[in-house]
Design brief:
By secondary structure, the protein is mainly α. It is built from 34 helices and eight strands. Strands 2-3-4-1-5 form a five-stranded parallel β-sheet, with helices on both faces. Strands 6-8-7 form a three-stranded antiparallel β-sheet. Pfam families: HTH_31 (PF13560), NB-ARC (PF00931), TPR_12 (PF13424). This is HTH cro/C1-type domain-containing protein.
């Protein structure tokens, strides 16, 4: 029995002993089922890479490699040269199973062309080389590997190099590029060959290199997506999954996985090149442990400098990508780092750059095409963490342009947040905001639904912008952003960012010496604490705000704070004090003609009266507020009024009226996007069902409430107290 047959027979024996089919082994090793079948039957020769993989998958360490044939015998289609110029495959390769399958499927198709694209350092070349090594044996005429970065981007130069490898003497290579291309296509006719084109810059560079011969296959790597190659299969590489990133680090260093290793690969943002450099630095310093490496990478401002092992530099890898950008693209790429959030939309990019909307959209698309920006949603663009650090340090070089961009950004954010706030809370008091001429136009928000969608998408970035505005001395914009975010935070029940933004806003108002802004911000901090159930904290803020409003003689601000404090006293159980404060505030609003605030205060009075045992009086007042809210178009307030009405009728033991009010509240709350009020309504409906002896229906309704908004606060939501007994 010859060596080849011995290898194939042993592989077949061990595969069957392991209970694996050829299909299953092919999936594990990423070799085709057809090729493995030919190896087992002795038609095709095995290779060391296959032997190593099969030993691992079949638990046969050291058993298959000795059976490899000394000189592989390959099927030939012609007697001339058979090139094989692949670089060696790295042994420390992890993950990418899905991408390997996609590439193999693309290259097994007739005339297959596959583009592997991704940001610098993501491991495109390693993946392509590994895949090519596994597929090379299926190409009778071998493999050609060309690093296009070495050829100055000229197809004619690449044709010259390839023709020489294909056996054409130097004096037989035409001088004219068109003739050279024709000869190249001619030399590939009838061949079965795998062509690997590494580091392609553009589709125009690659297109003249694509063979016309259908038995040839082409695997391309690029930092750009090369989307203009219509007939190619495109495989885009992202960061490694966390487990694969940890496995890569441990494979290189021999350090076992653990919390410190996980932190290191997270600081490397799961980027293979960054992980390899970090691992190399650890191996080069015998006195270091993983904790020391982690400490060095912890400083974000110094991280890029640490990711340099003397021969490989992450910054240098990123610089190659930026060098391919136009001046306008590079400027926008740098200016995007001025935004402290994680992603931006086209309107924000336009405001940052002072470019027309369409031009900003085009440039963002180009940066995404170059894998310098991610696209988490159809209309949003974001940074990879390490690319943001690089762009901040090396691309954003014009400090004055950056300062102007930040001012434009904060102006745009405040202007749009004010517009959105007016849509979701019409009739609320708004301070007059002054903008300089030329401030970017706000995003278009035609109704409350569009306004809520804008806030949901933008609020994390607006919170970051509020903080940064305060840090950079843009104090007016800091407190204004917090002010216009308040009502969205109330609807969404986002208490932590509500409190954070308003604490920064207080500091900014103090820095400005603006007593009204300080008083208003302090009162709104009280509202946040009441809404979260922190009543003592709320009362302390209300006390400060009352003193500030009285100092400047602001009767409206004083009254509103008094009304808010009345709500806090109600939740604390001091219902008589609450009723006094709320009635005093209500009288002021009626005299002032402020129907919205008067109705909101009436709703509070209805809750207090319910607690005092006057449920039918409460129901009558809640019903009147509903009519006002409907007339003013305040849908959320209407839903809250209906819940208040349901609460009053429940305590009056009019369960039919309570259920009717709660059902209407659920419908109205769902329509305006308030999960909190929706959950409150379903909790109330569950209470009604329980009171009527329908335990199964009550449980169903309470479960629905939990799915909508879990853990309603028992201090703030009476329905939750009843449910808990």
């Amino acid at each position: 029995m010859n060596e080849r047959a011995t290898f194939g027979a042993e592989l077949r024996r061990r595969r069957k002993a392991a209970g694996l089919s050829l299909t299953e082994l092919a999936a594990r090793t990423h070799y085709s089922k057809g090729y493995l079948s030919k190896v087992e039957t002795g038609i095709s020769a095995p290779n060391p890479a296959l032997a190593e993989l099969c030993e691992t998958e079949l638990g046969a360490e050291g058993e298959l490699k000795p059976l490899l044939p000394g000189e592989p015998v390959r099927r030939r289609t012609r007697p001339d040269v058979r090139p094989s110029g692949l670089p060696p495959a790295t042994s420390s390769f992890t993950g990418r199973a899905a991408e390997l399958r996609a590439i193999r499927a693309a290259l097994e198709a007739d005339g297959g062309v596959c583009v592997v694209s991704g940001m610098g350092g993501v491991g495109k070349t390693e993946l392509a080389v590994r895949c090519a090594h596994r597929l090379e044996s299926g190409f009778a005429d071998g493999c050609l590997f060309v690093d296009l970065r070495d050829e100055a981007g000229e197809p004619a130069a690449v044709h010259d190099r390839l023709l020489r490898v294909l056996g054409v003497p130097a004096d037989g290579i035409p001088a004219e590029p068109a003739d050279r291309a024709a000869l190249y296509r001619s030399r590939l006719r009838g061949r079965s060959l795998l062509l690997v084109l590494d580091n392609a810059v553009s589709a125009a560079q690659v297109r003249p290199l694509l063979p016309a011969e259908p038995k040839c296959r082409v695997l391309i790597t690029s930092r750009s997506r090369l989307s203009a190659l219509d007939d190619a299969t495109h495989v885009s590489l992202d960061m490694l999954p966390l487990d694969a990133a940890v496995a890569l680090f441990t494979a290189i260093t021999g350090v076992p996985a653990g919390p410190a290793v996980t932190r290191v690969v997270r600081r490397c943002a799961r980027l293979p090149l960054a992980i390899r450099i970090a691992a190399a630095r650890l191996r080069a310093h015998a006195a270091w442990d993983v904790a020391e490496l982690d400490r060095r990478l912890a400083d974000e401002s110094a991280r890029l400098g640490e990711l340099d092992d003397g021969e490989r530099s992450l910054a240098a890898a990123f610089r190659l990508s930026v060098q391919q950008l136009s001046t306008a693209e590079a400027r926008l790429f740098g200016l995007l780092t001025v935004h402290p959030g994680t992603d931006v939309d086209v309107h924000t990019a336009s405001a940052l750059s002072a470019l027309p909307f369409r031009e900003a959209d085009r440039l963002l698309d180009r940066l995404h095409e170059a894998h310098l920006l991610t696209q988490p949603d159809s209309d949003r663009y974001g940074f990879h963490d390490l690319l943001r650090a690089f762009a901040t340090e090396f691309v954003l070089t014009d400090a004055e342009d950056g300062m102007k961009a930040f001012s434009r950004l904060t102006d745009f954010a405040v202007r749009t947040a004010a517009l959105a706030d007016r849509e979701i809370t019409p009739h609320r008091y708004f301070p007059e905001i002054v903008f300089d001429p030329g401030v970017p136009e706000p995003a278009r928000l035609d109704d409350s639904e569009m306004a809520m969608s804008w806030f949901r998408a933008e609020w994390p970035g607006l919170v970051a912008l509020c903080r940064t505005a305060g840090e950079r001395g843009e104090h007016e914009r800091c407190w204004q952003l917090a002010f216009f975010l308040r009502d969205f935070f109330f609807v969404a029940k986002l208490w932590d960012p509500w409190l954070e933004t308003h604490r920064w806003a207080r500091s900014s108002a103090e820095a400005l010496g603006d007593t009204w802004a300080l008083a208003t911000t302090t009162a709104n901090l009280g509202v946040a604490h009441v809404d979260r159930g922190d009543l003592d904290e709320a009362s302390a803020y209300y006390g400060e705000a009352l003193a500030l409003f009285r100092r400047i003689g602001d009767g409206h601000g004083e009254t509103t704070t008094l009304a808010h404090n009345g709500w806090a006293e109600h939740y604390r159980g001091n219902h008589d004090d609450a009723l006094r404060d709320l009635r005093q505030a209500h009288a002021f609003y009626v005299r002032d003609g402020n129907r919205r605030n008067a109705a909101i205060t009436d709703r509070g009075i209805a809750l207090v009266l319910t607690a005092l045992g006057r449920s039918e009086d409460a129901a009558a007042i809640a019903g009147r507020t509903l009519a006002v809210f409907d007339e003013l178009g305040l849908d959320l307030d209407a839903a809250m009024a209906l819940n208040c009405l349901g609460w009053a009728w429940y305590h009056a033991e009019r369960h039919d009226l309570a259920a009717s009010a709660y059902r209407a509240a659920a419908d109205r709350a769902e329509a305006c996007g308030s999960r909190y009020e929706t959950a409150r309504a379903y909790t109330g409906l569950g209470n009604v069902a329980a009171a009527e002896g329908s335990a199964e229906l009550a449980a169903e309704l309470w479960n629905r409430a939990d799915e909508t908004h879990p853990d309603l606060d028992r201090v703030m939501v009476g329905e939750a107290r009843v449910r808990m007994g």
